[in-house]
Amino acid sequence: MHSSAPFNDAPIDRISPCFMGREEDMHAISSAVEFCDEDTPSRYAIWGMPGLGKSQLALSYANASFKAGRHTHVIWIPATTLEKVNQGLVKILDLTQHMDRNNSDQGARLTAARLCLERSGQDLKWLIILDDVTPATLQFLREHLPRQNGHGSILITTRTLDVAKAVTSVAGQQHPVHELKALSTEQSAKLLFKSAGIQSSAAADLKSAQKLVKQIGCLPLAVEQAGSYMRRSGLTGAGQLETLYDHGGLEEVIHGNFFPEYKELIGKLRLLAGTMAYPLTKRNQC
Q1: Is the separation of the CB atoms in 177 and 14 below 8 Å?
Q2: CB 22 within 8 A of CB 178
Q3: Between the CA of residue 272 and those of 51, 265, 268, what are the distances in Å?
Q4: pLDDT tens, the chain, 286 aa long
Q5: What total number of domains does the chain contain?
Q6: Beta strands of 49-190 (E only): which ranges?
Q7: Which residues neighbour 131 within 8 Å (Cβ) at sequence distance 6 or greater?
Q8: 77 & 169 share domain
Q9: What are the residues whose beta carbons fall under 8 Å from the beta carbon of 66, sequence distance 6 or more?
Q10: What is the DSSP letter of 127?
């Protein structure tokens, strides 16, 4: 790299103040990503359905790892489209003040970005985070990601196991993948209270909260949005919590503004639970 000054390019301001920590998942990432092979970068993919908090987990890891000095150069790349991946990879040249950053040849810049990371010294411990890799960007990434330098790491988030396995398969070696699962009922209830700003330990409130989070699948995004609505609406009691799911209290506020995947998920939950729908607000984090 031409500039050795440490930087964290990850948008850490997006980390939710209600993030639950995910200690076991964070430890799993650390164990895999920080393993140093003298020849090749480590790769690790986190996969799971939308709303589980994959991006939040990756952001939190990036923040913690950079602060601890485990990674000195953190590069965040949105990976849903070819355009975003192209921009993200050549951005490496700008971040490192590389001499080829103004080259008009896009192919040459992509090659320069890859070689920049592959040839960096051992004192530069870089981390690339590819957020939300899709089938549309998979092959491009396989062609242009760095394949040498054991002092680098690549962390990936994606929605499917197939993509996770494909993007972590390099030169005949299958790197590990990790399924991110929903929070437990207890964790989800804590998240609901935290995002709602409720300081309650009453058994009735806890029971109502657990009933609500079960109906929305214990998905962190859904739970946090329910809590956010409760905070805005001034709902604080157990009876008011029950209103949210017994009378569709969220629907009138945010109906129709969520991802298609959430619509399908909520539909399945309705069939399973025999309850009313629980809409979610649209968020950029998956």
Answers
A1: no
A2: no
A3: 19, 11, 6
A4: 555 789 999 999 999 998 888 999 999 999 998 776 668 999 999 999 998 999 999 999 999 999 999 999 999 999 999 999 999 999 999 999 999 999 999 999 999 999 999 999 888 899 999 999 999 999 999 999 999 999 999 999 999 999 999 999 998 889 999 999 999 999 999 998 898 888 766 766 788 888 888 888 888 988 888 888 788 877 776 556 666 555 555 544 434 444 455 555 555 444 443 433 333 333 334 4
A5: 2
A6: 73-78, 126-133, 153-158, 169-170, 173-174, 177-179
A7: 54, 55, 58, 76, 77, 78, 79, 157
A8: yes
A9: 6, 8, 10, 72, 74
A10: E
What the block records as the tokens of 76 is 């965040």
Nearest Cα residue to 131 out of 154, 152, 158, 113: 158
Q: How many residues does the chain have?
A: 286
DSSP 24: H
- Strands (E) in the chain, as ranges, are 7-8, 42-47, 73-78, 126-133, 153-158, 169-170, 173-174, 177-179
In a domain, 280, yes or no: no
Full domain range(s) for residue 201: 185-273
How far is the C-alpha of 36 from the C-alpha of 151, rounded, in Å?
6
- Same structural domain for residues 159 and 43? yes
Q: Which amino acid is at 13?
A: D
DSSP structure class, residue 13: G
* Angstrom distance (rounded) from CA 43 to CA 279: 35
- Same domain, yes or no, for 116 and 13? yes
